Amino acid sequence: MPTSRDFSCPPLPSSEPASRWQGLGIALGLALSPLVALGFTRFAYALLLPPMQLEFGWSFVQAGALNTSNAVGYLAGALLASYLARRLGLIKVFTACMLGSALALMATAWPSNFSLLLAVRAAGGLTTAIVFVLGTTLAARAMPGRVAPALSIYFGGSGLGVVLAGTLIPLAQASGQALDWRLAWLVMGAASLLASALAWQAARRVMRGAVTGSAQLAQPVWPALWPSLLANVLYGAGYVGYMTFMIALLGQLGFGTGLKMVFFAVIGSASVLASALWGRLLTQLKVGHGFALVSLLVATGTVPALLWPQAWAVIASALVFGASFMAGPAAVSVVAQRVLPMASLTWGLALLTACFSLGQSIGPLLGGWISDATGSLSAGLWLGPVLLLLGAGCSLWQRLPPSRTPD
Fold first, then answer.
1. Beta carbons of 41 and 158 less than 8 angstroms apart
2. Buried b or exposed e, range 101-119, using 16+ CB within 10 angstroms
């Protein structure tokens, strides 16, 4: 088990009162890591899936398998993050995996063989998970005394990635030519190289401001955190089908490029704009209740477009879903910060990310199987709200251990 002395970041020095905005620039710089890890690597796949599926003739199970391979790599990376940071150093591992994530995005443009694409997507999942776990640990220390706002800003980076991908990729398609999905992967990879440099600078600033804490043995995570771990599996499986297959559903319903672009732009913009509000709210709710609320709202957001296949319902769906879906990782990270001692935090975040990834591995395959079996893409998408509601119920079982201060 890792120790706080090894790689977790102790609180910044507290000899002077922290200003409200202290560390904001650091949190914004670190937010570029989920921009790459989730906004580009995970969510942009939904936009690029239709032209890839058309070119290669994939079934929905095959299309979901590519996201599942990414999630399997993500699961492995989440479990390796703590070990690698302890052995090699947090900054080195974080930076190397940011660069690896950018290269994996560019490499996705080259293979035409399905097996090679599976391997590249898995490699991208591995590196982005490590970035995500270590970046979350750093972000929790970016703004002294303001953990929830810092984490909300950090996870809001994925929303910015969704905005960029959801605007630029459909614009390329709207130019009158067929969307070049290979070029899209290359452009996102190149942008991720720049993001890597900026995130590295922010990570260095966190580590320079950290003070050395006493070495402590990490405590077992499962007994204290099991409701949130189980809820995160259900959350990952529930939300990912929507992000994987909604663009394909919009195409089946006859909606054009304009609505698809607006759909993704609304999701990303709502995520970025809502991050500050979630930062305040999550500090006020009881442990576990914040994640339950997020799961309920995300489930609500998936429903309108399935019930009413009209433009207004698609936009309403994107607005509710976008304003809440990236608050899930923030909310469950706040739970870990409240429930676990410092020495266990990074390992707890790693296990939460692993559970999230396990859910994301199951969701696309199961949803794709339901869609293929029923001949209806919307049938597979109904799996999402069911799993999300189950996750909300599990999160309500989360309690603070006796040794921690009550909410």
1. no
2. bbbbbbbbbeeeeeeebbe
Banded pLDDT at 219 (limits 50, 70, 90): low
Residue for token pair 């698809």: 260
Which tokens in the block code for residue 230? 């189980």
Taking only Cα atoms into account, the Rg of the chain, rounded to an integer number of angstroms, comes to 20
In a domain, 54, yes or no: yes
177 CB-near residues (< 8 Å, 6+ apart): none
| Cα torsion through 97, 8, 351, 279, rounded to 10 | -90
pTM for this entry: 0.75
Domain count, the chain: 1
> Is position 231 within any domain?
yes
Contact 305, 385 (CB under 8 A): no
Q: Is residue 14 part of a domain?
A: no
CA-to-CA distance for 205 and 357, rounded, in angstroms? 29
Q: How far apart are CA 398 and CA 407, in angstroms?
A: 12
User: How far apart are the C-alpha atoms of 2 and 216, rounded to whole Å?
Assistant: 9
* DSSP code for 86: H
Q: What's residue 225's pLDDT?
A: 87
**DSSP code, position 286:** P
Is residue 37 within 8 Å of 136, Cβ to Cβ? no
Q: What CATH number has the domain bearing residue 207?
A: 1.20.1250.20
**Residue-number span of the structural domain to which 255 is assigned:** 24-213+223-395
One-letter amino acid at 196 equals: S
- The share of the chain scoring above pLDDT 90, in percent, equals 27
Structural domain contains residue 278: yes
Q: Nearest to residue 165, comparing CAs of 277, 271, 58, 57?
A: 271
